[in-house]
């Protein structure tokens, strides 16, 4: 029986391991941390009974992922829970942009004139997303299986977000769009900076922005249980620094950053690949704060009180300005803050009337200051009285995030800067982005297509290349 080693147990590492195990391969996953899951882990902390997502929280890409859907992880206890409203983006004048699962309801709630254009922009993308998902969630340098739908998606993805926003007149709609675009964590005036918004908005309208019951850990637990059923093994507390530390295997799949892959296979990688991996750029960082809060957050706008996610970035110009500043290495006084209220859809995460609130700010790469007060102030700006509700909190600066997961270089939670080049050619210019140039060794982290997010598709595709190497998989990958 062929043997495989997967280094790293993030969603991509586990998805790769499961796919290999499905073909009867003897798979072992080696994980540096003391728990499996990488960016999909949940911890009970701050107050007994409150469950806090360490990293990922909201899962439009997981419910969109063709591979995760194929795996039927509900058989392993994974339950999706949907909030009443997916996203709210409040403004200082008390108005609020609201993203709902239904494109029609979202359009109806937008200021006059904007609704119809929202429907025109995202209705067709959402309607065709099931067909285009396999094109969009894979290598971009290949002929798409649905060229017309994929090209239509491209029209919404390629322009700078600062330009796309002009589709709408009202600051409410513009800021709703720009807040989603800001997930790209790059300058919103750059080409391709609408791409993440096109994906997340259309995925939301098609499948929702759910949370996993019991926390994102449930995704990891389900994948790990399936892997065990298929005969795979997992080992935690094992950080691979050199290829000589790897057990004998016919194929190796790395759920690591390109720079870690360059270190691990130093002297073995072809020179051009080594250079490309060393040149891989990491973008802005996250500063994360978990709160335990007694009672609900006292939002000024009622829609924020029923939204799974709240974006606190102010008006359109402010969202664009803070993204630009952070990209240039300047910490804004009022950073862009994302707030997760997963307990609204999943009350199992609360302890009585004490609820877990998940928040992070976009900060410059490697930022070493303390953004806790800036995050609290930003919440307080739209929810006066929030401070008085805090029972406990804990903060993680970029260096802490990297200590917990070395893929987050400088606190960059996307495992790579989403500049236009790297969005398309990740991790290097090649039609086979998962290949490292060493036969039998593949890269599967979020540094490969389709990029960051919990979807397992990078793992799926990298495993496909490994299977092909072993003569076990379909020729086209
Ligand atoms: C604060 C935060 C919020 C986020 N929010 C969301 C969200 O709401 N929705 C969403 O979809 N995504 C979100 N993400 C992003 C998402 O978590 C990642 O894109 C996703 O987890 C990437 O999966 P991966 O398998 O590529 O790598 P990771 O999940 O990063 O896992 C990599 C694993 O490999 C291990 N590893 C690395 N190097 C080695 C080595 N040398 N030896 C052994 N093990 C190694 C690491 O310890 C880690 O466990 C968020 C991330 C963070 C940090």
What would you note in describing this structure?
The protein has helices at residues 11-22, 60-64, 66-70, 103-109, 114-127, 129-136, 147-157, 161-164, 171-181, 195-207, 217-229, 258-264, 271-279, 316-327, 372-382, 386-389, 398-404, 420-424, 457-469, and strands spanning 3-7, 26-30, 42-44, 51-53, 80-81, 85-90, 96-99, 211-212, 233-235, 251-254, 285-294, 307-312, 337-340, 354-363, 390-396, 441-443. With 477 residues, the protein is α/β, with parallel strands linked by helices. The chain has 2 domains: 3-78 and 212-280 and 414-469, FAD/NAD(P)-binding domain, CATH 3.50.50; 82-210 and 283-404, Alpha-Beta Complex (Polyamine Oxidase, Chain A, domain 2), CATH 3.90.660. The strands form 4 sheets. A 7-stranded mixed beta sheet has the order 7-6-12-13-14-11-15, sandwiched between helices. Strands 9-2-1-10-16 form a 5-stranded parallel beta sheet, covered by helices on one side. Helix 1 packs parallel to helix 11, helix 5 (114-127) crosses helix 10 (195-207) and helix 7 packs across helix 10 (195-207). It is globular and about 65 Å long. It starts with a strand and ends in an 8-residue tail after the last helix. The relative contact order is 0.20. The model has no long low-confidence stretch (mean pLDDT 97). It binds flavin-adenine dinucleotide. Flavin-adenine dinucleotide binds next to helix 1 and strand 11. InterPro entries: Amino_oxidase, FAD/NAD-bd_sf. Residues 13-303 form the Amine oxidase domain. It comes from Lentzea cavernae.
């Amino acid at each position: 029986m062929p043997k495989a080693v997967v280094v790293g147990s993030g969603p991509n590492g586990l998805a790769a391991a499961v796919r290999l195990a499905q073909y009867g391969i003897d798979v072992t996953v080696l994980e540096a941390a003391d728990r499996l899951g990488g960016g999909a882990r949940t911890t009970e902390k701050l107050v007994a009974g409150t469950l806090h997502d360490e990293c990922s929280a909201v899962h439009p890409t997981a419910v969109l992922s063709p591979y995760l859907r194929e795996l039927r992880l509900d058989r392993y206890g994974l339950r999706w829970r949907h909030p009443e409203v997916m996203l709210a983006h409040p403004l200082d004048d008390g108005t609020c942009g609201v993203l709902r699962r239904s494109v029609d309801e979202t359009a109806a709630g937008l200021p006059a004139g904007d609704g119809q254009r929202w429907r025109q922009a995202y209705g067709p993308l959402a309607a065709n997303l099931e067909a285009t998902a396999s094109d969009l969630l894979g290598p971009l340098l290949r002929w798409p299986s649905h060229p017309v739908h994929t090209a239509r998606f491209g029209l919404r993805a390629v322009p700078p977000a600062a330009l796309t926003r002009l589709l709408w007149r009202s600051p409410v709609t513009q800021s709703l769009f720009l807040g989603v675009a800001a997930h790209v964590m790059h300058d919103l005036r750059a080409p391709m900076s609408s791409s993440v918004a096109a994906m997340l908005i259309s995925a939301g309208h098609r499948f929702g922005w759910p949370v996993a019951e019991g926390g994102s850990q449930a995704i990891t637990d389900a994948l790990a249980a399936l892997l065990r059923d298929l005969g795979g093994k997992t080992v935690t507390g094992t950080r691979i620094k050199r290829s000589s530390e790897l057990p004998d295997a016919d194929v190796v799949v790395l759920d690591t950053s390109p720079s870690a892959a360059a270190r691990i296979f130093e002297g073995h990688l072809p020179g051009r690949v080594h250079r490309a991996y060393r040149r891989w750029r990491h973008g802005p960082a996250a500063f994360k704060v978990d709160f335990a809060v007694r009672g609900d957050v006292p939002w000024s706008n009622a829609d924020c009180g029923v939204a799974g996610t709240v974006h606190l970035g102010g008006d359109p110009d402010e969202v664009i300005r803070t993204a630009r500043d952070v990209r240039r290495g300047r910490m804004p006084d009022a950073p862009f803050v994302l707030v997760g209220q997963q307990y609204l859809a999943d009350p199992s995460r609360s302890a009585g009337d004490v609820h877990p609130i998940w928040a992070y700010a976009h900060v410059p790469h490697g930022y070493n200051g303390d953004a806790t007060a800036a995050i609290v102030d930003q919440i307080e700006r739209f929810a006066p009285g929030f401070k008085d509700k805090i029972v406990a909190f804990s903060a993680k600066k970029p260096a802490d995030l990297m200590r917990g997961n070395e893929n987050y270089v400088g606190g960059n939670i996307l495992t790579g800067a989403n500049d236009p080049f790297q969005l398309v050619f990740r991790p290097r210019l090649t039609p086979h982005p998962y290949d490292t140039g060493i036969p039998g060794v593949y890269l599967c982290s979020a540094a490969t297509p389709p990029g960051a997010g919990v979807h397992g598709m990078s793992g799926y595709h990298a495993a496909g290349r490994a299977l092909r190497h072993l003569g076990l998989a379909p020729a086209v990958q």
